């Protein structure tokens, strides 16, 4: 398996590890894990074995995050060594911005929606408890 | 004169070596890092689209809800196709590292065909939705849905075009370092699209069916 890593082209790999390729093992492990992590949420929603929408939603979200990490490390081959660690720093930074954008939007707009329902704009002020 | 030649002889080889080394760095590391930064900024575009969809996801305006219009078996099929295309691209990269030109081309072609069937099924789904009256204009939920899923589909379409271009490039020039670099970038692009699709099928389709 690791023999593939010893035949790297010196021109492309002149400065050590680059992301975007890996061993056959990492692809097969990533594929196996992804297949399982795809099948479970579809099964949870389609067969509804938990019988609780909130619990199922939480499981789907957790499994999605896990699968994104599997893809990042097994298919995109992100590691702390490549490019002196800059790919990893960019990835973490993007993750933080992503959470702020999505989480922040949902949080703010949810509260705006519940505090500014139609009918609340007719003169009286709404007081959130 | 002899002194000058001597000086040149002393300077020239060093100069070229340094330049060649720099050049390798430019084509290898810097391009891949730059492409990675592009992918991260692309992820932020999708973050904005996911946020928009999330905010609008219950704004049905009296129109259809996700449960009424989504076909999960179709989504599962599309998810499987994209996942398999990820590993076939992985096999293309492994063949590229071995220097096997024909095998690389074959796996690339398989990946492109899988990508094309993904886009085909997605267009079929969009067509069925629009025929039912679930058009992007119908509600905020559907506007967000079509924008998010359509942007992902557009990325996959561009990826397919890129695969076709690479098949021609490899056919003409073989697995030269420049082509290997391009294939590495395309590899990151393709796997990145699969990562975005995880978000789409989980947060749009599966969570939509639970609402």
Automatic annotation (TrEMBL), chain A:
This is Cytochrome bo(3) ubiquinol oxidase subunit 4. GO terms for cellular component: cytochrome o ubiquinol oxidase complex; plasma membrane. Belongs to the cytochrome c oxidase bacterial subunit 4 family. Signal peptide: none annotated. Cytochrome bo(3) ubiquinol terminal oxidase is the component of the aerobic respiratory chain of E.coli that predominates when cells are grown at high aeration. Has proton pump activity across the membrane in addition to electron transfer, pumping 2 protons/electron. The chain crosses the membrane at residues 27-47, 53-76, 88-110. It comes from Sphingomonas parva. Pfam families: COX4_pro. GO terms for molecular function: cytochrome bo3 ubiquinol oxidase activity; proton transmembrane transporter activity. Heterooctamer of two A chains, two B chains, two C chains and two D chains. Keywords: Cell membrane, Electron transport, Membrane, Oxidoreductase, Transmembrane, Transmembrane helix, Transport. It is found in: Cell membrane. It is a multi-pass membrane protein. Residues 1-23 are annotated as: Disordered. One of its GO terms (biological process) is aerobic electron transport chain. InterPro entries: Cyt_c_oxidase_su4_prok, Cyt_o_ubiqinol_oxidase_su4, Cytochrome_c_oxidase_bac_sub4. Residues 1-18 have a biased composition (Basic and acidic residues).
UniProtKB/TrEMBL annotation, chain B:
NCBIfam families: CyoC. It comes from the Bacteria. One of its GO terms (cellular component) is plasma membrane. It comes from Sphingomonas parva. The keyword Ribosomal protein does not apply. Keywords: Cell membrane, Electron transport, Membrane, Oxidoreductase, Transmembrane, Transmembrane helix, Transport. The lineage of its organism: Bacteria, Pseudomonadati, Pseudomonadota, Alphaproteobacteria, Sphingomonadales. It is a multi-pass membrane protein. This is Cytochrome bo(3) ubiquinol oxidase subunit 3. Residues 1-209 form the Heme-copper oxidase subunit III family profile domain. It is found in: Cell membrane.
